[in-house]
Amino acid sequence: MTTADLHRMTGAYALHALPDDERESFERHLAGCEPCAQETAELAATAARLGLALSAPPRPEMREQVLRRITTVRQQPPGPPDAPRPGRTALRARRLSRWALAACLAAAAALGGTAVWQYERAEDAREQARRAEQGAEEIAAVLAAPDATTRAAALGDGATGAVVVSRDRDRAVFVASGMARPPGGKVYQLWFDDGGAMRSAGLMDPGRADQAVLMEGAVDGASALGITVEPEGGSRRPTSAPVALMELPA
Amino acid sequence: MKEAVHIGRNPSWEPDLQELVGRVALGDEEAFAAVYDRVVSPVLGVVRSVLRDRAQSEEVAQEVLVEVWRTSPAYRPDRGTAINWILTLAHRRAVDRVRSVQAAAARDHKAAALARTPEYDEVVEQVEARIEREQVRRCLRTLTEIQHQAVTLAYYRGLTYRQVAEALTLPLGTVKTRLRDGLIRLRDCLGVTA
């Protein structure tokens, strides 16, 4: 698509009339096109005026339902760069869904559950993730970081892993699903790969197939995450070839 | 549409909405109740305009209002008014829902997405015949017919520009251009700034 084509998309974008793939190309374009961003903001505000002309009376019971619901929903921390803005909600939605998915995995892991969580359950999951244990709080902070990026990979034998990195917080969370039990007396140990040198990032719980682990230590310059099978209690250096190696998201 | 969505007599974007949202951001549940009272009708109006189904609309409207509560700490007044933020969110969520329904329908071969497209006349009737906001009506009238059809199908029915092109049998490029110049004309007529 040419730049001129992208310039013409401001109207369709402001009306939420772009299919997802085109919306993403346009958002990439927007980031570097100040006049487009200005025009998009104005057209989004114009679209909202069209909405303001509409009104539908709610059922009276809805008020109480919503007011009750918010008492169980924690507010997000103030001031992330993805602050709501007309024309920016799409970006926000993508971040939210990534966060919701990660939160679901984390909650399932923290509770030792293996439930397949629906996106709709995300609010509940977030609440449970928060309450579950203190570790989950720290995990949630990384997952919720505005700059958090995720990389997921199949780990073999049906297991999947995702690593979420917040460069601002300099922390990473590893979320595993469907991990086979390590052999008796062994544990999975996580490592940061600092340009070939492996630095321990803590142990996984051998009893859980699904779990979210706050990796110990700062991410710093690490470029990858490794998992090895080690004797109980872990090792200072890897004593076996990694069962998985994942590059960290940039 | 024959029922449900009508034009509000006093849309609520009073100046104090912004201040209320600021209090909501601090966890003030009373302020949230006041925000609810001011915005629920337009939120439901926007969602129902796109989704049409009453039960689904209510579900999505509730999600939008809870999202307002949850994300209010990140709302930035310098980036737009509170009502614009809330209605943009409402429209986005309604559109997300209608598209996921369409995607499911397409997968199931139950119906092509366009089978769900109403006659655009219905939309126009819904917006124009009962519009309270004289200014919006007046400005919509300044659009060319194609601009008008394209903008109303996209906003009030939540169609993608591709669906709009199909519904109006117009080339894709034309629809993109009309959505943009139509909105620009509305912006200038309504005196919108951002």
Automatic annotation (TrEMBL), chain A:
Residues passing through the membrane, by range: 99-119
Membrane topology: Single-pass membrane protein
Principal place of residence: membrane
Listed InterPro entries: Anti-sigma-K/W_factor, Anti_sigma_zinc_sf, RskA_C, RskA_N
Localisation per UniProt entry: Cell membrane; Membrane
Record keywords, A-Z: Cell membrane, Membrane, Transcription, Transcription regulation, Transmembrane, Transmembrane helix
Statement: the UniProt record of this protein carries the keyword Zinc: no
Residue ranges constituting the Anti-sigma-K factor RskA N-terminal domain according to the UniProt record: 6-38
One Pfam family cited in the UniProt record for this chain: RskA_N
Domain Anti-sigma K factor RskA C-terminal: 104-243
PANTHER family assigned: ANTI-SIGMA-K FACTOR RSKA
Protein name from the UniProt record: Regulator of SigK
TrEMBL record, chain B:
All copies of domain RNA polymerase sigma-70 region, residue ranges: 36-101
Keywords: Sigma factor, Transcription, Transcription regulation
Parts forming coiled coils: none
Superkingdom as given in the UniProt entry: Bacteria
UniProt domain RNA polymerase sigma factor 70 region 4 type: residue ranges: 133-186
Sequence similarity: Belongs to the sigma-70 factor family. ECF subfamily.
NCBIfam families: PRK09646.1, sigma70-ECF
Protein name: Sigma-70 family RNA polymerase sigma factor
Natural source organism: Streptomyces heliomycini
